Amino acid sequence: MTSTSVTSTAVNPTAVNPTAVNDTVAIQSIALSQNRLVHRSQLPNGIVILVTENPAADIISTRLFLRGGQRVESSAKAGLVHLVAAVLTKGTATKTSMQLAEQVESVGASLGIDAAPDYFLISLKTVSDDFLAILTLAAEMLRSPSFPEAEFELERRLTLQALRTQQEQPFTVAMDYLRRAFYGHHPYADGGLGTAETLISLTREDLVTYHKTWFRPDNLIISLAGRVEAAQVITQIAGVLGDWQAPSTPLPTVQTPEVVLDPQQILIPQDTQQSIVMVGYLAPAIAPNLKSIQDFAALKLLNTYLGNGLSSRLFVELREKQGLAYEVSTFYPTRLDPSHFVAYMGTAPENTAIALEGLQTELERLKDQPLSETELQTTQRKLLGQYALGKQTNAQIAQIFGWYELLGAGVEFDLQFQETIAALSSSEIQATAQRHFDQSYYSILGPADFIQLDEDDEI
Q1: Residue 21: DSSP 8-state
Q2: Euclidean distance between the first and the last CA atom of the chain, given in angstroms as a whole number
Q3: Which residues, in sequence order, are CB contacts of 100 under 8 Å at separation 6+?
Q4: How does pLDDT run across 7-33, given as a tens digit for each residue?
Q5: Cα 258 from Cα 262, distance rounded (Å)
Q6: Of 73, 102, 143, 360, whose CA is between 20 and 30 Å from 283?
Q7: Residue 294, phi-psi category: left (phi > 0), alpha (psi -120 to 50), beta (remainder)
Q8: Segment 292-326, tens digit of pLDDT
Q9: In angstroms, what CA-CA distances link 76 with 80, 171, 175, 203?
Q10: Up-side HSE of residue 428: CA atoms within 13 Å toward CB?
Q11: Contact 302, 437 (CB under 8 A)
């Protein structure tokens, strides 16, 4: 156990992070919206800790983020991080998978693992009295997983089955083709599970190598929210993980392949009950220097305006008024590297052409015609309201602040994002649409008779 003393320093959101000195860990207290304070500290071994005190319920939700995720996979090892996540809970140097599960379940806690495009995540949820015990268990999984060979083989077979199941889901198939068109050789081109070829070639040693490379204290962010006192819980974390020393070698520099603009029309003949129509554009990443914050915020607002809920523009115009859509929406995920903005619709096969035209018309309209003042204000209120509601539970709070830290934006981005949304003008939003809704990609899946295949388009 490492003895760590903690000092508290209240600062404004733009203050420079204090530096840990010897065994003293300074706490930077950052005031955000909704009368919320986030306490940030960094242990001498590099672990960043974010604490949000929320005494409303005797629950602590914790997120342990490790930079990496699918973004650091090579194309030859696609699916690797998914298998690391699947096998991590199957045993440690001192415990079997059954012993791990029994310890979590015996106190009614929860522990989950996720492999995301930009990070690896361990999620914990406990009552306050059990926090230290479950954190200690998670720390053992972080530091000394055994990756049993038999469990690795089982999870590989299950993943291959999941891949086959995905090929029966029209939306997933259409999105897989669109994603590969967007990203080419970039790891984002993979859906996360890998391919049959890459999964067969992976070995247990690949999991061990990934773990040795990316599971280290100077690559770890711990974000938690609940009935805690910041100085006390930081001391507890230091006691569990403070003796974990970073390797002498620096973290690998991630150099992902360039994402090259190459608009494509992909037509996928498949005998389905409905057609899936997707129109997409490459879109900005959330860069660590936040130079693209206005475009990022404007596209988040347009995502809400076009495709979020029963009052969204696409739902009202294309489903309610024209009766074209079984489902219709948009999405714009937050990414470290270039992202994508996609509008999609599920429609009757005979409506495929008019559905594509409808999506194109609505997207082009944003370039030609600014939002009205009423549309702008309504969408701003809707987005900001949903954003606030998305930070109500301890789990949501721990997730969003840990994510912002990993992105390089810092928890201060919580305020910056809201202020930018509130300040956007219709002309700025229109200019964003003109910049990014220009070179479009299409992915259209449905019966061959309705997607108008040409010889050069068939796949």
Answers
A1: B
A2: 59
A3: 89, 91, 92, 137, 141
A4: 444 444 433 333 333 456 889 988 887
A5: 12
A6: 73
A7: alpha
A8: 689 999 999 999 999 999 999 999 999 999 999 89
A9: 9, 25, 21, 12
A10: 16
A11: no
